[in-house]
Design a protein that fits this description.
The chain is mainly α. The protein has a domain of about 110 residues. About 85% of the residues lie in helices and about 0% in strands.
Amino acid sequence: MTRKRRRMMVEAAAAVTVTAVLPEDLMIEILARVRVSNPLQLRCVCKRWKSLVVDPQFVKKHLQKSFSDITDLVSKAMEDMNAFQLQLNYAPALAEQQEDEEEGEEGEEEEEEEEEEDPHSLVNELAQLDNMLVVVRSLKGSLETIKVDVQAIKERVKCLQSFLQIYLKTRVSSSSSFSSSPSSSSPSSSSSSSSSNSHTM
């Protein structure tokens, strides 16, 4: 056996040993301390990940974190919507200002006797169009930001709904199995009592 092959076997054995050192209970304890927005992502890590769903401390911590994150996302969305509203209020004022300037320029042109267009007025009109394009781009960017905020809120709420569904389903199944366990032992006890009675007779 070559030295390289021996080293590879030692490394493989060490990797197996490290994996075997982590039992399921320890992995559950580690996963319970991980701050994730969606606990369903833990399914690929540990087979007993569902035990986290019924753990009161984990459920309480996850609900608090979810509500806090959703509140922060809603606050950010409201701030972006308020900024968008200010932009909407600014856009009509800018348009009215440009209309007043155009009316003033038209009045001055009527007083003039020249029939040819003034190159300076064309430059002013182009500048006004550029300003309007800047406002439109700004409004579009604000709408995209609000869209991203709303999508983030929807995804966070969806993750919370999935978690609560699994939590309720697991709680119901565990409670039903617990309630059915005493009834399953009753037939055996009754049969044992009947057999004892038959022996006495």
